[in-house]
Amino acid sequence: MIEKAEAVVLKTLNHGDTSKIITLYSKEFGRLKLIAKGVRSPRSKSMGLFQPTRHIQVIYYFKANAGLQMFKSGELVNGFFGLEEDFDRLTLAQVVVELVDRSVEDEERHPKLFQLLLDTLERLSNKEITSAEAYWFFHAHLLRELGFRPHVAHCSICRDPLKNGGSLGIGSAHLECVKCHQPGQDSIFVSDRVLLAIQNILDKPWVEIEKTSLNSRERRTLWDFLWRFTFHHVESSRGMKSLKVLKQLYD
Ligand SMILES: [Zn+2]
User: Fold this and answer.
1) How far apart are the CA of 148 and the centre of ligand 1, in A?
2) What is the 221 CA–ligand 1 centroid distance (Å)?
3) In this predicted model, what pLDDT tens digit does every residue of 59-78 receive, in sequence order?
4) Any residues with CB less than 8 A from the CB of 34 and at least 6 apart, and which?
5) Would you state the pLDDT for residue 185?
6) Do 185 and 113 fall within a single domain?
């Protein structure tokens, strides 16, 4: 049976002398793995199609219960070429696709997540848009779509509002207020301003959160919070390769 899908390339792996195994996140079927035979030969028309972050349309032969489907043909929808002119933006886009690859299940469609992925790559490739905010918006909404929305309004123990900020312990995804938190643990303190920024990112439309007013220390805490929270819920995110490059950029 022949199938058609609209997808973003998440990952590619060389296979044999001229083939590639491609992991896609598709609008119609969620994560999808294709084998594309002969695409690394110089005569192949599909050579440039399979860079991670590319938005493409593919036609493939579908076989039920097969781990790998056979690629037939494809075309580029959007290359997000703006990413290639800026190392920071390209790094963030690589983190985006790697994080999606590690957090979704095979063949589970989630059109809202697909749209979030496309919107994010579009924003990251547009120099007019601040890249960190575009990234945070993606990360926070990905967590929400996966069912792990961070709860930043109340203390997880006494339920009081976190008016004076809260602490997040290592290996924990719960915020605790100043009264309830046991000092001495290896935890991070997240100020009320950062908690409010996270809340806004989750609840307000993109246009309203585009420019946060956080200082550099607060921005670093926000990064730290998002990743600690993610490591707790999405275990496989801990070994992400692109994260090492990201850490060099933001530490
Ligand atoms: Zn408390």
Assistant:
1) 21
2) 20
3) 999 998 888 999 999 999 99
4) 21, 22, 24, 58, 60, 68, 69, 70, 71
5) 63
6) yes
Q: What pLDDT does 45 receive?
A: 80
Give pLDDT < 50 ranges for the chain.
none
Give me the CATH number covering residue 63.
2.40.50.140
Residue 29, pLDDT score: 94
Number of domains within the chain: 2
Distance of alpha carbon 82 from alpha carbon 155, whole angstroms: 42
Q: What type of residue is 83? A: L
- What is the structure's pLDDT at 160? 95
Distance 107 CA to ligand 1 centre (A): 41
Please state the pTM of the whole predicted model: 0.93
CA 35 – ligand 1 centroid, Å: 52
Q: What is the CATH number of the domain that holds 159?
A: 1.20.1440.120
Give the pLDDT score at 251.
63
229 Cα to the center of ligand 1, angstroms: 19
